[in-house]
Amino acid sequence: MATVSKLAKFGLQHVAKGIGRLAPEIMESGSGSYVTMKGGRRMLDFTCGIGVTNLGHCHPKVTKAAQAQVGTLVHGQINIAFQEPYLRLVEQLVPLMPDKSLDTFFFWNSGSEAVEAAVKLARHATRKQNIIVMQGSYHGRTFGAMSMTRSKTIYGENYGPLMPGVFSVPFPYCAQCSVAQHSSGKFHYDNCCMDPVRQLELLLKQETAPSDTAAIFIEPVLGEGGYVPPPKEYLAKVREICDKNNILLVADEVQCGYGRTGKMFAVEHWGVRPDILVMAKGIANGFPLSAIASRKELMDTQKPGSMGGTYAGNAVSCAAGVAVAEAFREEKILDNVNARGQELKQTLLDLKSNPATGKIIHDVRGLGLMLALECKPGPGFASKIQSKCMERDLLVLTTSIYDTLRLIPPLNISKEDMARGCAIIREAVEEVAAGADPVETGTQGQALE
Hints:
Layout: H1 6-14, E1 27-31, E2 34-37, E3 42-45, H2 48-51, H3 60-70, H4 84-93, E4 104-108, H5 111-126, E5 130-134, H6 143-148, E6 166-169, H7 178-181, H8 195-206, E7 213-218, H9 234-245, E8 248-252, E9 276-279, E10 290-294, H10 296-299, H11 315-330, H12 333-353, H13 355-358, E11 361-367, E12 370-375, H14 381-391, E13 394-395, E14 397-399, E15 404-407, H15 415-433
Parallel strand pairs: 3-13, 5-6, 5-7, 7-8, 8-9
Antiparallel strand pairs: 1-2, 2-3, 4-10, 9-10, 11-12, 12-15, 14-15
Helix pairs in contact: 3-11, 4-11, 12-15, 14-15
């Protein structure tokens, strides 16, 4: 680990302690799949700022668009008048939606804000209060979103009372399912017991009546809870329950959306229509921007003035968002996600199948370039692997209450950089499996998001 600089020491003294931090480094610049720290250390970035700079750092097209917009109009406040980048971004998004019913948009700044915008819309449109979320879900840290987050207790610990009307049910996390573990191999990811569906049905009978339930919020691929894709029939069954009970289905695709899983939005893997789609992170490749999309009949129930925000749909962020959408098409980003994702996943599967390294690996899972390596219970293997990767100048993150390494490299990463990253991960896992005990990272596997 590099020596803490004078400026970093200043940061440790004066920046809020509540922010988790991987390392006491100072990022000075970023280009493509790499970041350079103050002092010159250049690191391959398999974090993308937690799934944000999905086209790599300072993508030329996005940078050019933002620079041009800064010289034209920075703050075109949306409650005063339309501004062109906002409308041009809507034009780009409409054909990308996973269902043609999602034709009306509201932009905000962060994922948490977009989640709360979805809560407002769901409650207002249905005239019902209660919200159902998944155990293991992460929806944000602002007060309402924090009240819905179930990935770790740290996010809500000692901040109560939290927002009322939030109920939770199990997500089909097959690698940790007690039914599957006691089924003598009968139940597993490819043959799910579907107990989470039964638990959802029970919840609607025992705790929150359908007549009181506005929406079910779900990450189509569980994010901070462990990068867990659901088995193939699960989302369709949730959709059926929503339709039967007049409940809205809200897909929180803040982390798993915008190409991360190999499709533009993760729900496309299962062909399920959400009533509200939440997106953020990669939508503008690092510029603060989030959005919800829904059908016009729902959005039009809200009175003018009930939605808005000082910086909502900032012109520079929207201009960057337009450039991102264009780059996806021009550079065939989804093709690269699927090709590089296969290479990375095969590396992880090879490590699991090798007795020397597989002895510390519990599960390998994920879609596209949203992949996880879950370790077996022990002395914090994932955080040790993370440390070994960082020693070799590769940035990676851990996640979940279970001991899990998550991998979210740029969607346009080159074959050569992917090969380098795979080699580093392989070496790190081999060393930890052999007994290496490195100094753990600043977060020690604790909460980032």
